[in-house]
Write a structure and sequence with these properties.
By secondary structure, this protein is mainly alpha-helical. It is about 85% helix and about 0% strand.
Length: about 140
C-alpha cells in the first residue's frame, strides 16, 4: 500500500514537472521570437550583429534543452525509465550552448580544456550507448 502511494506521488510529481517545463518551453519560445524580432528590427534593420547572433543561438539551445527535458519526462511517464540517450543529448546540447555563449578570451585555458574533455567524454558515452543499442537490436 505504501509503495502504491509513493508511486502515485512520484507520477504526480513527474506530471507536474512536465506541465511546468511545457509552460516554460512555450514562454521561452515566444521570448526567443521576440528576441529575434528585436535583433532584426534594431538598426541597421534586417542585419543581426554577431553578438546578437550568439545571444540568439545560446537562447535557442536553451529552449532546445527544455524540449529535450520534456522528452525525458514523457519517456519516463511512458516506460517508467529514464533513457540514457536523451540525458546524454541534453548534456551535449548544454555543453554546445556553453561553448557558443562563452567568450574564449575571458575564460582560463584550463577551463576551456575541461570543457573540451567533458564534451569528448559525453560524445564517447553517446557513441557507446548507440553502439550498445545497435548490438542489442542486431544481436
Amino acid at each position: 500500500m505504501l509503495e502504491t502511494l509513493l508511486t502515485k506521488i512520484q507520477r504526480f510529481t513527474v506530471l507536474a514537472l512536465a506541465g511546468m517545463i511545457a509552460v516554460v518551453v512555450l514562454l521561452s519560445t515566444v521570448h526567443l521570437g521576440v528576441l529575434i524580432a528585436e535583433e532584426i528590427w534594431a538598426p541597421p534593420r534586417f542585419l543581426i550583429r554577431v553578438q546578437g547572433l550568439l545571444e540568439i543561438f545560446g537562447y535557442f539551445l536553451l529552449v532546445l534543452i527544455g524540449v529535450e527535458l520534456l522528452e525525458t519526462l514523457k519517456a519516463y511517464l511512458r516506460k517508467d525509465v529514464i533513457h540514457v540517450r536523451v540525458v546524454l543529448e541534453v548534456a551535449l546540447i548544454a555543453m554546445a550552448r556553453k561553448v557558443i555563449i562563452e567568450e574564449p578570451n575571458t575564460v582560463p585555458s584550463l577551463t576551456l580544456l575541461g570543457i573540451a574533455a567533458l564534451i569528448l567524454a559525453l560524445a564517447l558515452a553517446f557513441y557507446f550507448e548507440r553502439q550498445a543499442k545497435r548490438d542489442t537490436v542486431h544481436g
